[in-house]
Amino acid sequence: MRFRFLTSTPQDITRGSGTYVGISVLAGALRDLGHTVDFESPTRHFPVFTAERLWFNRGLRVSPAHDCTVGFDMDGYRIAGAPGVLHIASLKGVIADEVRFESGITRLTMGVQARCERVHVHRAARVLVTSRYSGERAKQFYALERFPTVVPEVIEINP
Which helix (H) or strand (E) holds 5? Predict the structure, then answer.
């Protein structure tokens, strides 16, 4: 299969943290199984991460070159649900749950991201989460009818 990974998470362990590690380990495992994995991430950077994510998503288009598109967190929300595209929303965290612990401008910008993530999970053919807790929060905050599929992450620190 030809996978297309959409992520605005920085593509290094320092800035991308565990999210980057989880996505890169998944891509490596799929490649080891003989699949193709292409990454798309922002090429234009902004001082405010939410602005960068919104700009990145605004420029996304459906790709007929791929069998499956996986959008991580909110990324891919604008193309999810397009006819003829298998689109999976993979949540590495539930932004609507995370925003509860923030304040000020961070709370405001994460609230925008949470609204996009909500659209994403409702448009996607399937929603994946990394834990039962995340599944419960996604179902609660995003009013999902079906419980998301739990796919625990195996994170390899020293590949």
Answer: strand 2-6
